[in-house]
Amino acid sequence: MKALLSWREGDDGLAPRQRILAMMVLMSGSVMAVLNINMVNIALPTIARELGVSSAASVWVINVYQLVGAASMLTFAALGYRIGRYRLYIGGMVIFVLTSLACALAPNLAWLVAFRALQGLGAAAMMSIGPSLYRVIFPTRLLGRAMGLTALTVSMAVAAGPALGGVILALADWPWLFWVNLPFGVAAIWLAVRALPWEDSHPHRFDVLGALLSALGLGAFVVMLDSFAGAAETGLRSVALLAVVSVVAMSAFVARQRRLEAPLLPLVIFREQRFTLAVITSFFSFLAQAMAFVSLPFLFQSVQGYTPLESAFLFTPWPLGVMIGAPLGGRLADRYAAPLICAIGLALFIVGMALLALLGESPATLDIIWRSAVCGLGFGLYQAPNNREMMGSLPLERSGSASGVLASVRTFGQSVGAALVALVLSGIMTADTENALSVSLALWLGMFSAMVALVTSTSRFALRRGRYSQA
After folding, report:
1. What are the chain's domains?
2. Which of the four, 46, 298, 314, 399, has the lowest number of CB atoms within 10 Å?
3. pLDDT at position 141, please?
4. Are 73 and 124 in contact (CB under 8 A)?
5. Taking every annotated instance into account, which residue ranges of this chain make up the domain Major facilitator superfamily (MFS) profile (predicted)?
């Protein structure tokens, strides 16, 4: 933290005191968006019971939040250019807080899902442009440390979400999962109005048709992935239809972006090899992490016999490892070439994934804990430098687009990973051994995805070494 307050002659970014206040705002937005998912996730059985709906129907409380966010990330990143990121970020916070109030007062599932969709829009507005604001707030020489602190904050929210949700449900009804957002959110809005850097709006025309095509293509893709594992029961027709809609919409979107002078997503950013390789690395690494996160509960509960609460605590070493590795990776990336730090972190992550895949049916609890911690440490060590590379490889005026791509790639990597695990586990039989083999297969596939990320990351060494000199 002391380094983030330092000042040198010629530094860009904000003055140290305003820098820290602005960072507190961005950390608050990340905590609200991430914590909300993890707290509500653990409450789905309670929500289903108290609203009198099926468990399958209650899952839409989570799904619609993520679907709307995934479909609108690129649109919000572009809208930040049009109206200014100051207005958009605070507007996203206001929507998130107001819809928290609405969710707490929702009389039935239909209204709750509708308000959660709007809440997903508020979260997407914050998450899509948050990383780009770090480029404005911090000097380039401290960007890696700032990204590391962000990863640390998100990991804390991931680790604390299930436990905090459990405590709230033990003391109060499920609406309090949303009531608690109000005082925290109001305080964050008050600070954001005073601390975030002001930006003027830009007069160029906003591409409404491009935004609609983007939302349709990305949204159809996410729904297709969610539907793919159940295709054996529902038929392949709906999956094929969604795939066609996604491909046609995204093809039309790309063709339109090439023609416009002020496109929603400037495709020229992908000509920068450092940026493109960082994007590909991020996709495969988040795919690998999602495969582990989705498959491990089956291993812990269905095969090894842990309770859901015990399973939640067995996950804790992973985000704790990220909390250690991310700040360290960020500091190292400010001093050394980011791809080198990424490679070390990904190699450690691959080792951790292999160790988890080799757990077997009756491992000691300590074996699970230290292997999960290795995964988290490696992922954290990789994540902050790679995010720094994505945000720092483009000119400052392109940081909004980079931020939207970063958020979208993370979301879609997680969606593809979850769909692949569902596809693998759809063949699970009743025998515990076959369950263990299926989960292990999912973990090995995740490890293979992490290896692809490592190969992509190390290919950046072929670029001119001078391009990685730190400002």
Report:
1. 13-198 (1.20.1250.20), 209-265 (no CATH), 268-471 (1.20.1250.20)
2. 46
3. 72
4. yes
5. 22-467
